[in-house]
Specification:
The chain is of the alpha/beta class. The chain has a domain at 8-151 and 178-208 and 271-284: NAD(P)-binding Rossmann-like Domain (Rossmann fold), CATH 3.40.50.720. The protein has helices at 18-28, 61-67, 88-102, 123-138, 157-163, 182-194, 216-227, 238-249, 253-265, 275-281, 287-297; strands at residues 8-13, 33-39, 51-55, 73-76, 107-113, 142-147, 149-150, 166-171, 176-177, 179-180, 203-206, 214-215, 232-237. A seven-stranded parallel beta sheet has the order 3-2-1-4-5-6-11, sandwiched between helices. Strands 7-10 form a two-stranded parallel ribbon. It has a two-stranded parallel sheet with strand order 8-13.
Length: 302
Amino acid sequence: MSSEIINKKILVVGATGYLGKKILKNLELESSFSIRAMSRKQVLPLENSKVEWVKADLLDRDSLSIALKDIDIVVSSANGYMKETLEADLTGNKNLIELSKENNIKRFVLLSIVACEHSLDVPHFHAKKLTEDLLVSSGIPYISLRAPAFLDQENDYIADAVKKGNFYGVGDPSTKWSYVFTDDLAVYVAKAATYPKDDILNTIIDTGWKDGAKSQEELKDIISRITNKKLSLKVIPWFLLSLLVYPVKLFSELGYDLLKMFLFFREGKFISNITNQERFFGNAPLSEDVIKRWAKNANLIS
């Protein structure tokens, strides 16, 4: 490991989220780095944890300046759209980038989204592309780690449906898009932050599976085979999603955002190019191996 990267301090923004917690666990395994985790609420460190917690808010520049003090590497996995606002993604990350520039941050790892440059009408996808653009123009050495669809969620609706013999999908059974397991994504984020060479800097890294994007029919079949459960595929058709978009917008920005995201999937552009993932992090996993790990975590198999 290069002497330039060891003994550095990493700030994790979004550390209390579903993915952020997993990122922290992976970074704690890196003995050559010290970790500071940022939360809008006061968080007490766990016993024997090497993580230092700081209370700060992306929309409060003064608190953000304190959080960035003596930091070398920033990891931003924060997002606001699930809280019905894009402020964290837009203004928040803008503040973070500007203050990182002032603090001479050596590496900025942004959790972004696959194909966000092709999806200007999906609000939270477009917000990530704008953040990428801000990073590039800032001159801060960056890594944009782009995620496709999450196989798992904090409230795992896929696992819940499988337990009842169902697989719920959107659009149609045959359109393919890429997926990632959050356990794997957290590993990639940690590796990007601690990667020992500079050739990883100023790159976009899509994440995904070795055997490529999957249709909902294919995903259902793999899960059915692994869990030994016969699953019924139930799909909300594209035309219904299209009809719902603007009525939903009247009462839910989040609902509108998600519907626009699903309709973007129909274009066939939500596909990961894993060339850089394999270049920097090694062989990508096969879908079957990933789904076996996911199924075990979800108590679908022993």
